[in-house]
Amino acid sequence: MNMHNHICKVSLAAAIGLGLGAAGAHAASVNVPLGGNITGYYQLHQGADILNYFNGGSDSVPNDGTGPSLGIQFSSNATAQLPGNNAATGDGKFENDPSGSNEVVYFGFSNSTAAYVNYAAGFTGFNVNYSYSNNSGVAGEAYLFSGLNGTGSLLGTINLAPATTNIKSCSVGTDAYCTWQSTSLAASSLAESVVFGVPGLTSGGTSTGAPVEDMEFDGLQFTGANPVPLPASVWLMLSGFAGLAGIARRRRPAAV
């Protein structure tokens, strides 16, 4: 095989690979992959603050390493919870999570800090499973905002009411989160964040208020999502392959 054909084949293979990667990046939905269900990434430790783990950064536990670059960021009061029956806390005592990821999100209570999750590239809809502790409590809400951290315009409100009856019972007596419900909402225009809150959180675009108490969340999914921009290194690689292809064309001997 001459050098020209070899370079062309390498360039074609790279273009196909990058094209498939770009096609994947343009997927209509982006999931928060709790439970380590992405190859090469780990289940987060119990009680870890999620922070930037799904934005190519880290959580509050150094041993969890660096997470996937999905463009997803959580507020500082969002923790990852594993199943357990620790009677001393209300964290991590769940069963029957619909996604089967075996890990959920819990927002610690605060009167001044919003509980939110950002997807900066933008999305038009949001799906989530949720559970109230012992299926009791006041109805909560979640809000879709046009800006990050619950800023900008309010684009939609999701009602998070407890189930009228227990759908599933807990098999472990000290567990509390066993009855799960699913809900979704389409935004009126492109959104960048979801804020979880009780009715005390105002609808005027503020990002402060009390987050939903005594609730855990599972299967968070952004729909109609824009792709996360490709890193500069990928564009540099593309430029390099384009240059190699150009050199190969210039060196090809003229037909006799």
Q: How would you sum up this structure, described in words?
A:
- By secondary structure, the protein is α+β, with helices and mostly antiparallel strands.
- The protein folds into two domains: about 1-25 and about 230-255; about 30-225, Jelly Rolls, CATH 2.60.120.
- Helix content is about 15%, strand content about 30%.
- Strands 1, 2, 3, 4, 5, 6, 7, 8 and 9 form a nine-stranded antiparallel β-sheet that branches.
- Helix 1 runs antiparallel to helix 2.
- It is globular, with a radius of gyration of 23 Å.
- About 35% of the residues are buried.
Instruction: Indicate the mean pLDDT.
Output: 78
How many DSSP E strands? 9
Report the sheet with the most strands, covering strand number, pairing sense and barrel closure.
9 strands, antiparallel
| Residue windows where pLDDT falls under 50 for at least 5 positions | 3-26, 232-238
Number of domains: 2
Classify the helix fraction into a percent range: 10-25%
Quote the distance from N terminus to C terminus. Answer: 20 Å
Portion of residues in beta strands equals 25-35%
Q: Top keywords for this entry?
A:
28% strand; alpha+beta; globular; 9-stranded antiparallel beta sheet; Jelly Rolls; 17% helix; 2 domains; 256 residues
Q: Quick summary of this structure?
A:
The chain is of the alpha+beta class and 256 residues long.
